Amino acid sequence: MITTDMIGGVMTDPKELLRRLDSLVVFRDLSRDPAVRELRRALRACDAADGMDGFLSHITAFESILFLERECDWSRYLFRLVMESENICIRQCGFGPLPPVLNKALDTELEFLRDLSQLRLYEINLPESPPDWLIEWDISPVDIPGEYHRRMERVGVTGYGIFARYHVFTMQNGGLIPVLHPDPQKLDQLPGYERERGQIIANTEALLSGQAAGNVLLYGDAGTGKSSTVKAIVNEYYPRGLRLVEVKKNQLYELPGLMDELAENPLKFIIFIDDLSFTANDDNFSALKAILEGSAGGRAGNAVVYATSNRRHLIKENFSDRDGDDIHAADTRQELMSLAARFGLTVTFSVPDREKYLFIIRELAKQYDLTIPEPALSVRAEAFAIRAGGRSARVAKQFIELCKSGVLNH
Question: pTM of the entire structure?
């Protein structure tokens, strides 16, 4: 049995460990983690009536969580929790120096968490020695204080909380949900439309550098790569602090609240609305209009709207809409049709002509290592486009993928 309270600088008394864990202020969110929760329960059980039995029940649950997370190493597990913690210090550091009291609390807790990361099972001062068949977790050297301070210095790039771990999000029930497996599309995998993409890339780089950046409408025919362009840009620039939040049309009324939330984040955001269009009496129209105009409670300085649409004017208007008792009907129609003009930048993606289509085909064939001779490739690609209903970047990619898989070789 261990009878000292410190081994190698690591606290080993269960009561003191529990007291320090329960006293966390800056990193209080760590107590919600399932592994930390089971560790706390195991330490508390040391003073309970069932003693070792209670300790064993919770410490094995703690180890089970580590192993399920593929983290047999407690040091690395705790290190990740600390680095991704969304606490008051990391949220404030992107907007100026912390108050001295917060700095002191932060440093004190980081030192404790560094020591806690080196905790070993058989060094805990228990009422009786644990059974020798109990599996012990791994530990490794981690510089939690040093790495955390470096993280704070680069918070505008690395982010915090879920923004440190993921770069694509959707909205659900008013909150942000990370996309675990986002589309891996890359810019160098999108041949053709280089000029169009160049405008959007320049606007994105302006956003990242803190310069004035506009909202962007990517307008054009289906299958020309509008959505793929936005996704590829986020994949390219997320290491520099760019994140994407995809918003459905029926969620546009939540945009003002989302913008307020993002305004307090040091990262840069693209609010992505795919396949945007409205009916004349759509309630979501006003919400988007307020964001685009930057009205009070509308636009956050670190966020822009990128929307794609197959319709230039965004409003689905029927001849029957021109009838009715609106005295100023012409003014109303003008307001509806002018929504697209409220985007700072409109980029048009047109159906490729034969030359551009075959250029895309040749470039994709290189990416997929196809060995079909170029004359035959062009003839087959044109025939495929006719059967598919016309040329587009999407049709070109479908053709190349089917050739690569052998489907079109039979």
Answer: 0.82
